[in-house]
Write a structure and sequence with these properties.
5 helices
Length: 184
Amino acid sequence: MSDFPTLETERLLLREIVAADAPALFAVHGDMEAMRWFGADPLTDLQQAERLVETFAAWRQMPNPGTRWGIQRKSDHQFVGSCGLFKWNRGWRSCIVGYELARSARGAGLMREALSAVLAWGFEHMGLNRVEAQVHPDNAASLRLLRALGFVQEGHMREAGFWLGEHHDLLLFALLRREYPAPA
C-alpha cells in the first residue's frame, strides 16, 4: 500500500496513528468501560499502547493489509479514538471494519462521521464490495451505528470472541457496495 491516506470530514481529521499518540491511545484502550465491547483486553501500561501503534503501522505491510486511522477532532486537535479497515481480502474484495471512541467523545455522531469517510474511501480506493463488522449483542450504540450506516445483520456467531477471560457471542453485520451510501 502507498502513503498513508489522510481523510478529512467536517469535524474530523483521520490520520496515521504515530508514536506521539501512544498516551492518548492508552487513555482509550486502557479504559475498561470504553473497551468492554472492543474484543480485546484493556491495555494496562503505556508500553502496550506504544506496541499497538507499531501494530497498526505494520498492518499496511501485511499480505491482507489494513489501515487504522486515528480520529482527531479539528476543534481542539484531540485524539479521540480510531477506526479502520483490516483483513483485506483482495480476491474477494472484502474486509472487516473496527472502531472505538473515548467515552468523552461519544454521543456527538463523531464515529458515524469517521466511518462514513472510511467506508467511502474503502469502496472507492480499495475496490471493496463487502465490509463486515462483528459486534457484541449487548453493544446497543454500535448496533445503532451500523444500522444507521446501512449494515445488515447476517448472523449470530456463538462464542466467537474471547476477552476479559470470557467467551462472547458476536453478531455479524455486512454492508455491500451497492447499499452504500445508506439512506439518510
